[in-house]
Structures are given as C-alpha cells and as structure tokens.
Design goal:
alpha+beta, nine-stranded antiparallel beta sheet, 37% helix, disordered N terminus
C-alpha cells in the first residue's frame, strides 16, 4: 500500500512539474519570441545607419518600409549569379544587400523559397555589408556614402568568373573604384582604390561594416551562440548575444589578425580583412524609434594619398552557410581547411559553434561526415558510428555487464537476506555488501553503460543541432529531417485522426510523441528489464519510470538523436544478453517482460 501511494505521489508530482514548466517557462518564452517577430514585421520606420567610428557620423532620415521586391526594383543594381548565391549589389551605396542562398530552402520541400540572407535598407529586415572610406577629422574631402550612386564600368553580372568594377568621381579630384569578385561558395573579395588628381594630399581611413536592423528571432539554447562574433587577435574569441550587446551598447577592440561579423544558427556574414591589418574593431547596438540595429565594423589605419597617387585596400566578406568543409575545421590529422586554412585566418573555424567540448563534437562530426560520404545517408552513418563507439567501449562495458550478470546470479541470496533481516536495514546492507565483496560485484556497475552514453549523446546532440550538414538530412520513411523532432504523433494515431495534438493548450508539447521516441522508450524498457531488480524500492521506482520519462523528454529532440538512442539500447540488450550467457546467467528478458502483465496470485484480492 505504501509503495502504491508513493508511486501515485511520484506520478502526480512529475505531472505538476511538467505542467508548471510548460506554463511558467515554455509558453511565456514562445509568446516572447512571437511578440518580437511581430514587432519586427510591423515596424513602420527604417533605423538610422551610422558609419563606423566616423568623425562625422551620418544619420539619414528614416524611410518607409516597402516590400523586399519593391526595394530591389527601385534601385539600380548589378546582378549576382553563382552556383550557390543569387541576388544583387545596389549601386546606391555600393552595398551588398540582396543575397539568397540558393542551395538551401526554408523547409524540406525543394520548391520552398531559398534562404534569404541579406535584404536592402527600407525593408522589414535590412541586413547588408558596406565598404568605403572615412575622411580624417577636419577634412573637407567628399567621400561616397550610402546615398552615393556608383556607375558600373562595363556590364554584366557578378559571377565566379567575371568580377565587376564600380566607379565614383567626387568631382573634386578623387576617383573611387571598387572591384568585387566572388568564388563558387560564399566569399566576396573587395578591392577599393582611390586616385587623387586634386591639388593636395588627402587622408582617408578604410572601413567595412555588417549591419542588421531589428532583433532577429534566435533559437534561445545555451549550447548555441547567435549574435555578434569575432576572433580578435590576442583577445581571441569574442561572442556577444543581442541581449548582451544591447546592455553594453558598444565594445571596441584594437587588434591585428582578426575577423568579425554576425552569426545565426546556420548562416553568417563575416568581415575578413587582411591578416596583417591594424583594426579598430567594434560591436555596437543602436536604436531608432522602436527598432534596434546591430553592427560589426572595423576601421583600418589611415592612408595619405599624395597628389597624383593612388591608395588601395583589400578585404573579404563571407556571406553564406556555415558548412564545415567551406568554413574550415581545425582538428589534428584532418584536411578540412576551408577558408580558415586557404586564407590563413585566425581560428575562422570557430564561426561554427563547436562548444567547449569541441574535442568530442568535432571528431563526432568528422566520423558522421565520413560515413555519410560512404553510405549517402546521415541516418545510416549515425547507426554505423554507434556500432563503432560500442566496439571502442566494449572492454569497459564488458566488465560492467559481467558484474551485472554476477549480481543477477546472487539474487536468491539477496532474497534470503531480506527474509532474515526484514526490519534491520543496516544489517541487511552490511550482509549484502559482504556478498558483493565476495563475488567481486560492483553494485553500481549497471549505471556505467548509461554514464558512457552521456558524452556521446551530448556530442551527437550538438552536431545535429549546430551543423548545417544535418539540416534537412533525411533518413527513411517519415523522417525527412534528422535535425528536427519526429513529426508523427501517437495521440492522433500517427496521422489517422484529423487533428494536431501538439496544438492542445498547455499539454500540447507533451502530446507530440512520435514513433521513434516510442521505439526508443520500448528498447530502453527492455534494457531495464534485462537488469536485476534493484533492492531499494526508490531505485526500483526510478528504474521503472525512467523509460517513460525519457520517452517524453526525447520526443522534442532531433530525430537523429532518438534513433541513435534506440539503436544504442538495442545493441546494449544484445551485448548484455551475450555476456550474461557467457557468465552462466540465464537471460530472462521475456519472462521479466511477461511478469509485468501478469498479476501474481498474491496480488489478487482474497475470496470471501
């Protein structure tokens, strides 16, 4: 009676905790994100656009918000057309402000819209890169700004084989030329030149910036950084979330050999100046009305251009998907150098958030990526890597399972002790420990296989969550995206009933339990039933409910992670059964499972 009461209490308390978490945290968080998105989309004004560290900052008047297509169509432009990018460069301001990632789509449907990275000023979500020169304090030299209309020399689109050159003459002796090239991935190379045909030398500072208007919706997970990022010389990796930079307003760095930009979960825009350039780098947050702007920029050392002379500066812009092979991955004995190695950059591979445990997450990704290229399916790669991990840890797991087999063999002795000392818990524990010591049994050995899974589980979760290679990667049947939760729901009979249980108020997120989480829960239950029953009632209760709890917990996790866990459980059952037989212990998995559904005669009410 006491155990039944404790079980009921545990169930009720667990339910209350789940409901409270949903009501006080999850729903408010979703409402907050939704409100932020609505505020951003309903903005009626465009924010100011400050120039970086300029002695004469420019604050143009706010513009009315127009549709993205209208903003693009109403300004003169040069088309961008490469295998992975499409869009245009605005001749007004010579900005790169219209960019689509044609290889990636918003959903798993290949006909869905391409990912929009950059968008022009005046739209609901302006996001762009700008380059140029800033005149020295007190100088009257007229330099191009965001309102300057440049002219294209020649004609044609910007492609991976055809750079474009833009020109602006200020009418006072200074001629500005900008040559823009792009490769077959996501790297723009910009060369700015200034020719001085005036009557006096002129001093100018080269600058570059990436500006984003409006606070974007972020994933909100502590294991992933989204916001402003840079590896700034001796000051190393600097990460500022949107909230953090809102509080700081502006942070500056004087560095050499740095890069900086703005990163999303899968996409990023980063300025890559020459590695020898002296930079005054800055992250900043400003506000115009109700709209915030975020900017990563730098100012290089001044150049004095003599009469009849020419000044020049080179920089680069990464704007695209954070593919490991393109960005680069720094790991021993691995040749995935990408831009990091190709350009000699300073830890550009950290643009991908491998986390503090990169020594686990990087090899996990490299293994999955290798076997993906072997099998052509990331799901199969996950299954195969799980087998390899099992093989690596086999000696340790073997000792653990052997100890568990011995523990199962001494269960009759434990049962006899319980009958001898029904009311003396201390004596019972002492006698049990003597048996364990005599038989060389580690009573907590059953936890070891679970403990071994934790770093593997975390690294796989991290890889599935942050790497774009896993995005929209299919498995088989209904799993079209291994990085997303299983889309099926048991509470509508996997689609047979015409409603979405996840939309049920309050309890919806806990009803979204798909087929793979259920498979995982069943395999975990089988594994638990293979083990000896814990002598402690509290431990037994925990072990009995663990598969159910994990089923609900993992239902919202990426499908690839749930598939891994289910496959790992299955391999563990096979491995443990083999070890038990080898140690002369009868495997009673089926009997233990059947016993759950059989009511013992002693449990039946007595006849009167």
């Amino acid at each position: 009676m006491s155990e039944n009461r404790n079980t009921i209490i545990a169930i009720v308390l667990s339910g209350l905790i789940l409901i409270a978490w949903q009501y006080f945290y999850n729903i408010p968080q979703m409402e907050k994100d939704r409100a932020a998105q609505q505020a951003q989309s309903q903005t009626a004004k465009s924010p100011t656009e400050p120039t970086p560290n300029s002695p004469k900052p420019d604050h143009p008047a706010a513009e009315s918000v127009v549709a993205r297509g209208v903003a693009i169509a109403t300004t003169p432009r040069v088309k961008i057309d490469t295998p992975r990018l499409s869009g245009s460069i605005s001749l007004k301001g010579a900005r790169i402000d219209d960019l689509l990632l044609t290889k990636f789509r918003e959903t798993v449907d290949p006909a869905s819209p391409a990912i929009e990275l950059f968008s022009p000023s005046g739209t609901t979500t302006p996001y762009y890169a700008e380059f140029g020169w800033v005149a020295a304090t007190g100088s009257t030299a007229r330099v191009p700004d965001q309102n300057t209309v440049w002219q294209q020399e020649g004609s044609g689109a910007l492609t991976q084989s055809t750079p474009v050159t833009l020109k602006y003459d200020n009418g006072e002796g200074l001629t500005f030329r900008r040559t823009i090239a792009v490769d077959d991935h996501y790297l723009f190379t910009i060369k700015d030149e200034v020719t001085n045909a005036g009557g006096a030398p002129v001093t100018l500072y080269p600058f570059a910036l990436i500006s984003r208007h409006g606070t974007p919706a972020v994933s909100g997970y502590y294991i992933l950084h989204e916001g402003l990022i840079g590896y700034l010389g001796d000051q190393k990796l600097q990460e500022y979330s949107y909230k953090k930079i809102d509080e700081a307003k502006s942070v500056s760095f004087k560095v050499t050999n740095g890069w900086l930009g703005i990163t999303d979960k899968y996409w990023a825009a980063a300025l890559l100046p020459d590695t020898s350039a002296q930079l005054q780098a800055r992250f900043s947050s400003n506000e115009s009305g109700s709209v915030k702007t975020y900017q990563a920029d730098y100012l290089e050392d001044a150049q004095t251009i003599p009469v009849g002379g020419t000044g020049s500066v080179n920089t680069r812009l990464f704007a695209g998907a954070k593919e490991a092979g393109v960005v680069g991955i720094n790991f021993p004995f691995v040749e995935l150098g990408g831009y990091n190695k190709q350009l000699g950059l300073n830890h550009f591979d950290l643009l991908i958030d491998w986390g503090w445990f990169y020594f686990i997450t990087k090899p996990m990704f490299l293994a999955l990526d290798f076997f993906f290229h072997v099998f052509g399916n990331f799901g199969i790669a996950i299954l195969f890597v799980t087998v390899l991990i099992k093989a690596i840890f086999f000696p340790l797991a073997n000792r653990s399972y052997a100890s568990m087999a011995k523990m199962k063999a001494v269960q009759p002795q434990i049962a006899a002790l319980k009958e001898r000392f029904p009311d003396d818990k201390m004596k019972l524990q002492q006698e049990m420990m003597e048996i364990y010591k005599k038989e060389k049994i580690n009573p907590i050995s059953g936890c070891l296989p679970m403990v071994l899974q934790i770093p593997v589980f975390f690294s796989l979760y991290k890889v599935l969550f942050v790497t774009i290679e896993m995005r929209h990667a299919p498995f088989f049947a209904w799993i079209k995206d291994l990085s997303a939760p299983d889309p099926t729901h048991i509470f509508n009979l996997f689609g047979l009933l015409p409603y979405d249980p996840s939309a049920v108020p309050l309890l919806g997120p806990y009803l979204a339990i798909g087929a793979w989480p259920i498979i995982m829960g069943i395999t975990m239950w089988f594994q638990m039933k293979l083990n000896p029953t814990p002598p402690d009632p509290t431990q037994k209760l925990i072990f009995d409910w663990m598969p159910v709890i994990f089923t609900f917990m993992l239902a919202a996790f990426p499908a690839g992670l749930v598939i891994y866990w289910a496959w790992n459980n299955t391999l563990s059952v096979i491995q443990q059964s083999y070890i038990m037989r080898r140690n002369g212990v009868k495997v009673e998995l089926l009997n233990n499972v059947k016993s759950v559904f059989r009511r013992k005669s002693s449990d039946k009410p007595a006849k009167t």
